[in-house]
């Protein structure tokens, strides 16, 4: 199954090893209907933009993930307060991905304007 990831599961980041055995398909952007928050600069949390002034397109990667890998990925994400949900891409395609419970994001910086987790992380090293 194809899955959109937008945080530490992406290539070169700390949790990418959970995708060992998955096949990279392509980079992609979501439809501009999400907001992205930094949770202690360790990982991002993405929520639907309902109730916010506007939404943003968020950068990520698409992987073809074998069903056998999905339980471990979901278990790890759930540990972080995240869950499996539908992600809408800018091309209109929908697929599974990882979303956050909105309450988890309260009090954390909204980093949506950076356009993605990798783009935000680059500002931390400057």
Structure commentary:
The protein is of the alpha+beta class. It has one domain: Hypothetical upf0131 protein ytfp (Roll), CATH 3.10.490. Helices cover 17% and strands 34% of the residues. The protein has three helices and seven strands; from the N terminus they run βββββαββαα. The strands form two sheets. A five-stranded mixed sheet has the order 2-5-1-7-6. The chain has a two-stranded antiparallel sheet with strand order 3-4. It is globular.
Work out the radius of gyration.
13 Å
Q: Describe the main β-sheet briefly.
A: 5 strands, mixed
Tell me the CATH architecture: Roll
CATH topology: Hypothetical upf0131 protein ytfp
Helix content: 10-25%
Number of domains: 1
The shape, in one word, is globular
Topology as a string of helices (H) and strands (E): EEEEEHEEHH
* Integer average pLDDT: 92
Total strands: 7
Protein name: AIG2 family protein
Organism: Sulfobacillus acidophilus (strain ATCC 700253 / DSM 10332 / NAL)
Domain Allophanate hydrolase C-terminal: 1-121
Pfam families: AH_C (PF21986)
